[in-house]
Prior knowledge:
By secondary structure, the protein is α+β, with helices and mostly antiparallel strands. Helix content is 26%, strand content 35%.
Amino acid sequence: MNPRTTVYTMRQHTARRLGHFQAQPIRLVPTMTPQEVAREGRKQLPTLHLAVLAECKSLLQQGTPVEHLLNHTTHDGNNWWVLVSIAPQGVGITALLRYRTPDQRLQAMRFDGIERTAHHYSADVLEPILKRMDGDRDPHQRLGRFLRESCNAPFTVVGADEAGQRTVTSTLLNQRVAGTWHVPYDLVCYHESRVADSEEPTLPGSSTVGRGG
């Protein structure tokens, strides 16, 4: 289990209650900016985590190390893939919120935890990656596989501007992607991709950041 994932010990997840969380999430709409999606997604994470832990109760009681992928729809109608990693030290949860652009293209945002960096994958980034997966699967199903196989991918900071935004690169399922780390929002937006035929040169002063920031 990656240490940057939100981890609950068995005592913690049984002690938590829905009444502790007062945020009022809303259903996502295609015109939302990634910053707005990140804000609304973070509101939903506590309730989502509790629902997923309840659904995995039997696996938790067994205590056997395992990864379990769930397709979950919240009460407000938002659609998530959730990867639950059960290990002796606790339970790790990584969630991928999927939604459409105004022209109905698929995009998604990954949350490694309530207080971790969120990662937005634009349609331009996701489409070539999903296209190379099993062609006979529904794109939503391929997105679940994308979460399972790319959730540990780190990103590398290769530049920064005066406003504090940082240029980053990463590799997702052999696809080299570039994006921007919006530090004030704790949000990385990947917006450009190409096949990783060769490694890009490391720029002076660059640094690699593990999942979750």
